[in-house]
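Hi P.,

Sorry for the delay on this. The queue was packed all week, but I finally got your sequence through. Input first:
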Amino acid sequence: MSEVMIGVAGIVVLVASIFLGAHVMVALSLVGFAGLVLLTGFAPALSVLGTIYFTVVNSFHFSVIPMFLLMGFFAMRAGIGNDLFDACTKWMGRLPGGFAIATTGAAAAFGAASGSSVGSATLFTKLALPEMIKRGYDRGFSAAAIAIAGTLAVVIPPSALMVVYGILTDSPIGDLLIAGIIPGIVFAILLGLTIFVVAMVNPKKAPRMAERYTWGERLWSLRLVGPLIVVIMAMIGGLYGGVFTPTEAGGMGALVTFVMAVIRARGLRGLQLGKTLLETVQLTAMIFAIIIAGLLFARFLALSGVSEAIRELLADGTLNVWVVVAIVTAVYLVLGMLMDAPSLLAISLPITHPTMTALGFDPLWFGVYVIILAEIGAVTPPVGINCFVVKGAAGDLVTLEEIFSGLGPFMIACAVMLILLLAFPEMALYLPHSMK
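Then the structure:
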């Protein structure tokens, strides 16, 4: 059997293992190591395995991941999501569909602090969905708005998923984080506009709020949100200006959210510091394991020649470049329905990244595009992981069928977002290029 055929067989075995229920990390590790043994022998394969483990664990870039995750857990423990929701409700609640728009705005801001789409979707389902239903909002539309708003968490920096992409593709992490700012803001605005248009066309789906708030009440609602916004802006500004590294930004964010959490929880006991640290370690370990397994599998594909063969097949000019983009987009949307984003990146990037860069696409732009695709896949029927998360958090308030039926307008907004990124790549590239 040729080396390329061994690589193809490895991909087939990997996909089959995942569909049969094997954990992605286990499947990537076993297939990658077995493939290396077939290609190079046991001793060289073991040497490659040891080198990858040391390189990954010893990498300074990895320290940013636990910092961002810790910042997110502290933000959740501090009840910052409640503060953001209260503030956004007072500022945007009177608009058509204002309660849902406020939820989207709060999810975008909370995402900048947590970086977790699942955490954001869970929090705002419990926080906002009962209130929206009580105010006469359509159940499916409300739940779908929360599910899609959760995806903003991994686009707007600080984003642990951007760090994962940077490590897997050897891209500059600071530039990647900055690249997500404008697309994340544009995506949030698109989702808000979608809610506004739906509310204008069919007010029964998202009726206006009856309450009115004074300017004093609006300004007072910012008393606890303001410090977090200042910290996030300082982190982004510091990264953009080259004042500190992504790891230093994450450390500063974690420290400030820790202080806020202690104040809100009135001590370390209310903060549940031990549980928070344990959850951070567990999630960090899971992400580390997936990345290490993904790098091992990528080394196997590279040695087999499969990555190069696929790159040549797709990028040799036979296929129109936009056909290749359409194929890559479809693959990410389908796979995004079936697995979490870190696993998806670990499996796909060894093939898609060299292909897209060979076609002339900027790796920073591709990082933003891929991460948005992965998160759109997380809400796309018939699987849509975020939709199941919302359903689980909502209990009997809404059915899964209602959530999927409410996604229609938001899928249009997602398509518009992808088209805008393709048509105007500077949306993602302007800020990082202006840092040079």
